[in-house]
């Protein structure tokens, strides 16, 4: 058999497999439509139907990764199914997701990574605007950054939870790669725009390569790219998506100081999320202003063997030198061992707020 004949036979096989895949995807989509019909049928009068279930999607994606046998990697396979699930969910209910914009930001990338490309993304000017969009019902969910592995916590996000009644219903992590973008020759760059966090994450690289070039912080990396596309002598630190959106060239790629630079984003919404079997819980606690107060709040976690994943301190708005603590830990608030733990912590705290229990990031 000749090369052309062997390739022809393999291509015929691929065409046949593609046809089967297409038929199965449409069959799955029809099942999704039937799920929507059943939910509407049994929904109580006056209640709204909940179509998107974060815990269910997390469980499905974990199963996909667990049974994958290659040659595609586990995450690659899960991302393919994420898009299938996104398209199927859109048949049940098209979702609108608010994110920290404008178009081309890392937060938009995080939104698409978590929800897939079948959602309608609405960029907002600030984190507070993301919360307002979801609170008003203009968006089903919001996506906001909460911490970066290099630069730490995003304080605006934590402060928004103090006043808001929105709940955390998911998380997504995104590996952050920064690129120097410009339409100019790199040697003619006189100023570099970027978000303050991105400038900080690339500080050492900038010191070595552009030590005398002005660095200007702006509201977002996408805004930086927009300015760089319009101003002579300007460059931006932003993503590949921003480069494509604003027709800029990435003259230097992956300029972040830490190669494992990662940002964690939170998904906020109005509905509590049921247990997925592998969850986190976030709470806000204000302790009494007395010796050992924080110890008494944290000691039950150690005693009961519950792993803390993050603790942050923010000034309280109730008085000078008073603080609130944001605590993330493993487990769901409905778990048998977590229920009494939260009750004990609440009894010891001056103020207590459950911010949400949600599936750990799958991808």
**Structural class by secondary-structure content:** alpha/beta
Proportion in β-strands: 25-35%
Q: CATH homologous superfamily of the largest domain? A: Periplasmic binding protein-like II
Per CATH, which architecture of the largest domain?
Answer: 3-Layer(aba) Sandwich
Shape annotation: globular
How many separate domains? 3
End-to-end gap: 43 Å
Calculate the mean pLDDT score and round it.
93
- The Rg value, from CA coordinates, equals 24 Å
Model description:
By secondary structure, this protein is an alpha/beta fold. It has helices at 3-42, 54-67, 74-92, 106-115, 127-136, 155-163, 196-201, 203-209, 221-230, 240-245, 293-303, 338-348; strands at residues 96-100, 120-124, 141-148, 152-153, 167-175, 179-182, 191-195, 214-218, 234-238, 249-252, 262-269, 279-286, 308-315, 323-330, 351-359. The longest helix has 40 residues, at 3-42. The model has no long low-confidence stretch (mean pLDDT 93).
Characteristic terms for this protein:
single chain; 363 residues; alpha/beta; D-Maltodextrin-Binding Protein, domain 2; Alpha-Beta Plaits; 3 domains; 6-stranded mixed sheet; 5-stranded mixed sheet; 15 strands
């Amino acid at each position: 058999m000749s090369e052309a004949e062997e390739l022809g036979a393999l291509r015929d096989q691929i065409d046949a497999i593609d046809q089967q895949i297409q038929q199965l995807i449409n069959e799955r989509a029809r099942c999704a439509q039937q799920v929507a019909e059943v939910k509407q049928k049994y929904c109580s009068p006056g209640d709204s139907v909940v179509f998107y279930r974060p815990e269910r999607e997390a469980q499905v994606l974990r199963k996909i990764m667990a049974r994958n046998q290659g040659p595609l990697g586990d995450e690659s396979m899960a991302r393919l199914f994420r898009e299938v699930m996104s398209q199927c969910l859109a048949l049940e209910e098209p979702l609108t997701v608010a994110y920290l914009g404008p178009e081309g930001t890392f937060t938009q990338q995080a939104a698409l990574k978590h929800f897939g490309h079948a959602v309608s993304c609405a960029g907002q000017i600030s984190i507070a605007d993301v919360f307002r969009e979801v609170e008003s019902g203009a968006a089903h969910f919001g996506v906001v950054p909460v911490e970066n592995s290099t630069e730490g916590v995003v304080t605006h996000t934590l402060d928004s939870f103090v006043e808001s009644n929105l709940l955390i219903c998911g998380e997504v992590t995104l590996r952050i790669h920064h690129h120097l973008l410009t339409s100019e020759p790199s040697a003619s760059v006189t100023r570099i725009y970027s978000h303050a966090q991105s400038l900080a994450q690339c500080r050492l690289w900038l010191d070595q390569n552009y030590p005398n070039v002005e660095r200007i912080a702006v509201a977002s990396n996408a805004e930086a790219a927009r300015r760089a596309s319009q101003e002579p002598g300007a460059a931006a630190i932003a993503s590949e998506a921003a480069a494509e959106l604003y027709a800029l060239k990435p003259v230097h790629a992956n300029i972040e100081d830490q190669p494992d630079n990662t940002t964690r984003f939170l998904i906020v919404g109005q509905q509590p999320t049921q247990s997925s079997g592998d969850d986190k819980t976030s709470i806000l606690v204000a302790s009494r202003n007395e010796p050992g107060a924080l110890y008494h709040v944290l000691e039950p976690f150690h005693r009961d063997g519950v792993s803390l994943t993050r603790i942050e301190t923010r000034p309280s708005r109730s008085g000078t030198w008073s603080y609130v603590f944001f605590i993330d830990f493993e487990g769901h608030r409905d778990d048998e061992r977590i229920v009494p733990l939260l009750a004990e912590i609440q009894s010891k705290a001056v103020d207590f707020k459950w911010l949400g229990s949600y599936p750990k990031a799958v991808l």
